Amino acid sequence: MNYWLVKTEPEKYAWSDLERDGQTTWDGVRNFQARNNLQQMAEGDLVLYYHSVSDKCIVGVAKVAKAAYPDPTSDDPRWLAVTLAPEKAFAKPVTLEQIKKEERLQNIALLRQSRLSVMPLSPEEFDILLGMGN
């Protein structure tokens, strides 16, 4: 199993929207590195759901319900999407400030490549963040 973090603006598609909908197509990614990460996602992989811009915190765990397929919002076959489904909301959001202060997370992609919208996590990083949120 692999672990991931995806970023979304809560004003556009929040965790509550994912819970309400039961699943969503994670589309519209137009960065090659993020696209490559989408391509590596496998069904059943776990994904931390990060509210960017206004909230700046991880709010829940989703899972990949369907691996990469052509992005329905693009005519260009190079762009991909996956389907995500909610697993569990965090008991307490894990803020960017908390992540920055956690010494064991100093190499996390969220801090090194802050503009990347889809990024891998190591199993250790995932476990640390999961523990912080629950």
UniProtKB/TrEMBL annotation:
<dbReference type="InterPro" id="IPR015947">
    <property type="entry name" value="PUA-like_sf"/>
</dbReference>
<dbReference type="InterPro" id="IPR047197">
    <property type="entry name" value="THYN1-like_EVE"/>
</dbReference>
<dbReference type="InterPro" id="IPR052181">
    <property type="entry name" value="5hmC_binding"/>
</dbReference>
<dbReference type="InterPro" id="IPR002740">
    <property type="entry name" value="EVE_domain"/>
</dbReference>
<protein>
    <submittedName>
        <fullName>EVE domain-containing protein</fullName>
    </submittedName>
</protein>
<feature type="domain" description="EVE">
    <location>
        <begin position="2"/>
        <end position="131"/>
    </location>
</feature>
<dbReference type="Pfam" id="PF01878">
    <property type="entry name" value="EVE"/>
</dbReference>
